[in-house]
């Protein structure tokens, strides 16, 4: 039996749009509301890397339970925002809003994709050592960002209701900065 436990699966062709929302929003630059704390653990895995590895597991008959995640802890929401910003040479300026303030306003993971609203901030701090030892080779996050951005441009990606709307973000920035 082989059990693969990914966190957030990201990359080109993402049908959920969760990662795409962050790539799109950070690409637009400017002040950006981010759900805090900035240090909250977050891990992702590029779907292409996960797929290649799972095929290899099946081909070799490897069994066990594996966390298909990248990068290894400690890695955070702030790291993800910074990696996306760097890859896209974005001028986005993150403003970290306390989770409680966002939750009080009725905002959740639907508004900030990839945010586990109200969850333990270390819930996504999983050890990928077993997966890495069996051949999982996650590509750099910056490569996933650039490939996703290129796909989004080719596909004409639009947010279509995914994540916080630009108008609501402007309102929220006003509310939070008073």
Topology pattern, helix = H, strand = E: EEHEEHEHEHHHH
Name the average pLDDT.
Answer: 94
Fraction in helix: 40-55%
Query: Could you describe the largest sheet, including whether it forms a barrel?
Result: 2 strands, parallel
Radius of gyration: 17 Å
Describe it.
It is a single chain. The protein is α/β, with parallel strands linked by helices and 178 residues long. The chain has seven helices and six strands, in the order ββαββαβαβαααα. It has a two-stranded parallel sheet. A two-stranded parallel ribbon has the order 2-4. Strands 3-6 form a two-stranded parallel ribbon. Helix 3 crosses helix 6 (141-155). The longest helix is centred in the C-terminal third of the chain and has 15 residues, at 141-155. The radius of gyration is 17 Å and the shape is globular.
Topology diagram in text:
Elements: E1 2-6, E2 8-10, H1 18-27, E3 31-35, E4 44-46, H2 47-60, E5 64-68, H3 77-88, E6 93-97, H4 99-104, H5 129-133, H6 141-155, H7 166-177
Helix pairs in contact: 1-3, 3-6
